């Protein structure tokens, strides 16, 4: 009986010891992950503080600076391009020491809606702050939606090898009707509204729907052309290819009136704005926003309309 009691006691002691070890490890992991999160939050806070200090320091000097806003990558809602650009523009214009704004552009284009929103915001803010000029400097590419935005600026500067233009609209998609037939798959689609399934990739092309789709593209293209003409004015040359969707190198874009000259961010700040010091007003994502957007993109999982209109 004594041996049985000893065995039970030893077992209980071992179980209790294992439980304590597991609890200790669990607490250690919790502490570890809390420290990681604190480090991330601290890094973000320091980055924001240093960014704000840079801007505050530039304002306190009173000597004036060139505000730089980066327009980089595709113009999409996933990137929050419209929100970031409008917030950066508003902040730069409101700074009393901003002598000029330089948009550092390197983008193939994107959403016509977001491009139009940023274009309108630039023109609105320019009316409110007539003493602050806006310039666009193209590094590699400023095409389609990017050029839509750029045309609102006072002047556009390029490199001789920059790619500029692509004033056009496209809508891409695929048709899988032949593949479905070969696989013996029958598409059973029901709609309420004769045009509701327009652009469905699993249905045969419909001449009426194609005509509607083309009209939409033509209307957006007309808005694009009107914006460029309003922004560039008499600088644009009367070339039949200007609004055809073609692109040009920077050295060809200048004679066509699509650009005004050669320049970099540094040279425009120094020689045009006359404020060599630059302050970056580009809006950056915080960590939580990046994670949330990434989760959203993964959740969407490519569920995207094939009737996707872009200024690419």
Low-pLDDT segments, ≥5 res: 287-308
Tell me the span between the first and last alpha carbons.
85 Å
Instruction: Please tell me the total number of domains.
Output: 2
CATH architectural arrangement of the largest domain: Alpha-Beta Complex
In one word, what is the shape?
flat
Describe the main β-sheet briefly. 8 strands, mixed
- Listing every helix as H and every strand as E from the N terminus to the C terminus, the arrangement reads HEHEHEHEEEHHEHEHEHE
Secondary structure tally, helices: 9
Kindly provide the name of the CATH class of the largest domain: Alpha Beta
Q: Provide the structure class.
A: alpha/beta
* Rg for CA atoms: 28 Å
Q: What is the arithmetic mean of pLDDT?
A: 80
CATH topology descriptor of the largest domain: 2-enoyl-CoA Hydratase, Chain A, domain 1
Number of strands: 10
Q: What fraction, in percent, of the residue positions are helical?
A: 40-55%
> Per DSSP, what share of the residues sits in E-state strands of 2 or more residues?
15-25%
CATH-assigned homologous superfamily of the largest domain = 2-enoyl-CoA Hydratase, Chain A, domain 1
Pfam family, one: Peptidase_S49
Keywords: Hydrolase, Membrane, Protease, Serine protease, Transmembrane, Transmembrane helix
Family: Belongs to the peptidase S49 family.
Domain Peptidase S49: 127-274
Give an overview in words.
The chain has helices spanning 2-61, 81-94, 112-128, 145-150, 177-183, 207-232, 250-256, 265-273, 287-300; strands at residues 65-72, 98-107, 134-143, 155-158, 163-165, 170-172, 247-249, 261-262, 278-280, 308-310. The chain is α/β, with parallel strands linked by helices and 312 residues long. The chain has two domains: 1-61; 64-171 and 234-301, 2-enoyl-CoA Hydratase, Chain A, domain 1. The strands form two sheets. Strands 1, 2, 3, 4, 5, 7, 8 and 9 form an eight-stranded mixed β-sheet that branches. Strands 6-10 form a two-stranded antiparallel sheet. Strand 2 (98-107), helix 3 and strand 3 form a beta-alpha-beta unit.
